[in-house]
Design brief:
seven-stranded mixed β-sheet; alpha/beta; 11 helices; two-stranded antiparallel sheet; globular
């Protein structure tokens, strides 16, 4: 489904002041009047900030969840979005940016023309309980998603959201990853073909590191240190595989690269977010070892946060041409 982009309002300090993708619907400050009209539940969390403008307390997980629910409903037509307590609550503008840049990646591989067929297939690794990438991608671009996770409860929550949104439910299929040590293994079958894969990997090496990172976010919001470090984690949401894994982000993506080399012809572009720039050299070295034929690093920015994703393909120019003729 497609909706007119809301007219950007005057920027509010600390909200989307960076350079979001030009097609991102969330430019400038949030229009809380419009958002509250879309979802009246948001009104209970709207306050006046130090600039005399409407805002929410971004340290309050319930307020952040309500904001996301309203954004998804008003801008993407997603009804009844919710996540269980302690699950990762994603910032919608930043998640949308990744998808828009992926659309540009496809366009750049197709002589500047975005593939027009609405049957493009995308694999989302670790969709979580929020299902944010498939929900936005199916609504914004009409892409078909296979969303995977190792947690059956997370997939059950995404299914509940899909049941409430029949208009896009047929575009999103869920698959349980039975092994915590696998990424593409057990997921991609012999008859599966994906134009894109995407992933927001766990980036901490341990729960202790995750707590320290969340404490820094807490401090940046001007809050005093909490006596209970676990409460800081819960405030920002996320647990277990969503936040950390042995070896952290670098080890997870290296495993992804290794597994991708086993299925070189079944995905046009493999991609993953890379939160830590210092991991890029080792990851690019891993891609050289598996003989990726083309590697791209795509920079993104949301507010003061700089991020990027890596994309790689094993397809030769002739294989790419055949893929585009058949699928795009």
């Amino acid at each position: 489904m497609s909706r007119p982009h809301p007219r950007p309002a005057r920027q509010q300090p600390g909200q989307n002041s960076g350079k979001l993708h030009p097609r991102n619907r969330h430019q400038g400050r949030y229009d809380f009047s419009r958002l509250m009209a879309a979802d009246t539940g948001l009104a209970a969390f709207v306050i006046q900030n130090g600039y005399g403008e409407s805002s929410i307390d971004f340290a309050d997980p319930a307020a952040v969840k309500a904001l996301n629910r309203s954004l998804l409903k008003s801008d993407y037509g997603i009804n009844d979005w919710d996540i269980p307590e302690q699950q990762l609550c994603p910032p919608v503008p930043g998640r949308a940016d990744y998808l828009h840049h992926l659309a540009d990646l496809l366009t750049s591989s197709n002589k500047g023309v975005r593939p027009k067929r609405n049957l493009l297939a995308v694999l989302d690794i670790g969709t979580g309980a929020n299902g944010i990438y498939p929900l936005i991608g199916a609504s914004e671009y009409g892409w078909h998603f296979t969303a995977t996770d190792i947690n059956p409860d997370s997939l059950a929550n995404v299914q509940r959201i899909l049941d409430a949104n029949p208009a896009i439910a047929g575009k999103i299929h869920l698959r349980l990853q039975p092994s915590a040590d696998a990424i593409f293994d057990n997921i991609i079958g012999e008859d599966d073909w994906f134009d894109l894969s995407m992933c927001n990997p766990p980036f901490h090496t341990s729960m202790a590191e995750a707590r320290a990172g969340s404490q820094r976010k807490w401090n940046n919001l001007g809050k005093e240190k909490l006596a209970d470090a676990t409460a800081t984690i819960l405030n920002f949401g996320g647990r277990d595989a969503e936040l950390w894994c042995p070896g952290g982000e670098a080890a997870f993506i290296e495993r992804m690269i290794s597994e991708s080399a086993k299925i070189p012809g079944q995905c046009f572009w493999f991609t993953t977010l890379v939160a830590k720039a210092e991991n890029l050299p080792v990851l690019k070295a891993a891609l050289r070892r598996v003989n990726a034929l083309e590697v791209r690093e795509v920079a993104m920015r949301q507010g003061n946060k700089r991020s990027r994703f890596l994309a790689w393909t094993f397809l030769t120019p002739s294989q790419q041409a055949a893929w585009k003729k058949m699928r795009w």
